[in-house]
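Batch job 17 of 40 flagged for manual review because the log was empty.
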Amino acid sequence: MSKSPVSPPIAILLNAVLAVIDEAQPKSLCVRRGEGFGLPYGPFDPARHRTFELGLRSWVAEQTQVPLGYVEQLYTFGDQGRESPAAVSAGVGAGARVVSVGYLALAPEPAKVSAKGAEWRNWYEFFPWEDWRSGEPAILRKAIMPGLAGWTQRAETDAARRDRETRIGLAFGLGDVGWEEERTLERYELMYEAGLVEEAWRDRAAAGTVAPRSDRAAATSAGLAMTSDHRRILATAIGRLRGKLKYRPVIFDLTPEEFTLLSLQKAVEAIVGFELHKQN
């Protein structure tokens, strides 16, 4: 009688996207790890943490010395393969299947950071194609759209090519669709599949699979990479916040008690990534 395969242990990591508006720029709290940046995170410890949220608050305070205020659960990320390289650095055993629970936190101003390696970073350093406040980002025409076109042409079947064309059109607002700011995650995931972000090259090298057939220079120029899949988590948070602005007054969680109408306008523009009509 054959034995059933042994399932790998499961580890739960807690990640925080802490968003603020600082001098009309959207920023998130990041922690430098090695040569790159990541979000504050740590493993959930059932012996120490009564709830996921309490565990998250504990880890953020420990890593950044910044206490969290408003917090909401963002998403649970459990894709296979996301455990490298984050799990090892978080103290999770090798071979564990890692599930991350992401949280979005908002604050009216960037708190002073005293922990080593922790700092506030502009969103658009990681997603330069998302900032349309000064017009269409140059990187779209120079690298991203040509890279996606090449990826589409390399599809193995006509059906796969048409599927890629449709997905790109919807995500990047081609034709009559128009740019939809909340599709942040869809755009990033398409670029990941096409090998147009540095994480795609890193992850495939770590897994020993074939490298992307795209231009490595395009991936290098497409914003700062983040540890593990933290750029995907940050993209999810940006899309969620952009969408919430349309039906909830969450912008007031990102402003001080007293503000001018101009500063409010600039804060909204910083989040959505394009200029607004002043009267609107």
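Reviewer: the log was empty due to a logging misconfiguration, but the result itself is present. Residues 82-90 have pLDDT under 50 and may be disordered. Unflagging and moving on to job 18.
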